[in-house]
Amino acid sequence: MSEAFPPEDNSGLSMRNLTHLLYGLFALGLLSAGFFAVATIAAIVLAYVKRSDAAGTVYAAHFDWIIRTFWWGLLWVVLSGLATFIFIGWITGLVALIWIVYRIVKGWLALASGQPPVADY
């Protein structure tokens, strides 16, 4: 005999709270200078896992924003790390760090106002 599970009562995290959690974990990992890097990894894994649940909502743009910020930031930090051997990496690393912080703040402020994050080009 199989048991039927009752429908969910939505007692879990709402998409809004989940998105705040993602930004918070990402910021914690970043602002701790990598000491809590596992928080950033958890944010990205959670963003990938819950991405399909957010499809078609304003939160989908935030999930994409967080994922893109992570991967582009990681690329620039790694390239800057390699460029430290020619002494320019410190400058590009600082620029990459400022860019990542800017994206986190901009995305989080957009979430607080109920809007999707918009990239400035």
Task: Give structural notes.
Helix content is 67%, strand content 0%. It has 4 helices and no strands. By secondary structure, the chain is an all-alpha fold. Helix 1 runs antiparallel to helix 4, helix 2 packs antiparallel against helix 3 (58-83) and helix 3 (58-83) packs antiparallel against helix 4 (89-112). It is elongated, with a radius of gyration of 17 Å. It has one domain (15-112).
Summarize it:
By secondary structure, the protein is mainly α. 67% of the residues lie in helices and 0% in strands.
| Global mean pLDDT | 84
Strand content: under 5%
Q: Give the low-pLDDT segments.
A: 1-8
Helicity, in percent?
55-70%
Number of extended strands: 0
Largest sheet features: none
Task: Tell me the Rg in angstroms.
Answer: 17 Å
Q: Which characteristics define this entry?
A:
121 residues; mainly alpha; 4 helices; elongated; disordered N terminus
Map the helices and strands.
Blueprint: H1 15-31, H2 37-50, H3 58-83, H4 89-112
Helix pairs in contact: 1-2, 1-3, 1-4, 2-3, 3-4
